[in-house]
Amino acid sequence: MKVIRVLNKKELGQKAAKKGSDYIRDAIGMKGEANIIVATGASQFEMLSALVKENIDWTKVTAYHLDEYIGLPESHPASFRKYLRERFASLVPVRMFYYINGEIDPVQECRRLGNLIREHAIDVAFVGIGENGHLAFNDPPADFETEEPYLVVNLDEECRRQQLGEGWFASLEDVPLQAISMSVRQIMKSRAIICSVPDLRKAEAVRRSLKEPVSPAVPASVLRTHSETWLYLDRDSASLIS
């Protein structure tokens, strides 16, 4: 893992997008295509804003959705499908974007997506770290063992309170209890992982992810075992590490 500290969120987003785009262009140059994983949430605003401005032949890029709530319509402000269409897929001509549909049978949807992603090596995964240390929606204790690419997961209260605090929902009761999430092992199969983590509210999760033992109790700690993880922090999120 490489840890890059910058002064603010804008610079964080620009540097993370630049590094990720280098991997995408490299993949296109080597094999004529690239496969990427795209995350959502407030932590990805600046990175995605910079990524869509990069000089990339997006017609050769296939994208996979990282996680989505179960039972939430796409019209809801918190829908990650809505987020990704507005902030990414409508702005660049990607060849294909495989969205997670949380409104249909979740077990069948996990099977459908798993069969798709198994056929392609992922070149770059863009991810974040949750306030509880989660990776995607793999809340602690995360499943580090399953080889299934997508899972139905339960969202713990700290995770749900983060979604409320970010302004996606009007009340805690409105936040879904379950989601479909890409598994930890599937994320870790990516050639490169670009992890963007701004804001003071993430500082404790960053400290735990970097300083505590690699463990399902701190899901994002597993990123330390991947040699091509690039962790981008701003001054606030890096404030508890030396």
Gist?
By secondary structure, this protein is α/β, with parallel strands linked by helices. Helices cover 31% and strands 19% of the residues. The protein is built from seven helices and ten strands.
Structural account:
- This protein is α/β, with parallel strands linked by helices and 242 residues long.
- It has a single domain, classed as Rossmann fold (3-Layer(aba) Sandwich), CATH 3.40.50.1360.
- It contains 7 helices and 10 strands.
- The strands form 2 sheets. It has a 7-stranded parallel beta sheet with strand order 1-10-9-6-2-3-5, covered by helices on one side. Strands 4-8-7 form a 3-stranded antiparallel beta sheet.
- Strand 9, helix 7 and strand 10 form a beta-alpha-beta unit.
- The longest helix has 23 residues, at 9-31.
- It starts with a strand and ends in a 9-residue tail after the last strand.
- The tally of strands reads 10
Q: What share of the residues lie within helices?
A: 25-40%
Q: What's the number of domains?
A: 1
Percentage of residues in DSSP E strands: 15-25%
Main pleated sheet = 7 strands, parallel
- Could you give the distance between the termini? 16 Å
The whole-number mean of residue pLDDT values reads: 97
SS-based class: alpha/beta
| Adjacency order of strands in the biggest sheet | 1-10-9-6-2-3-5
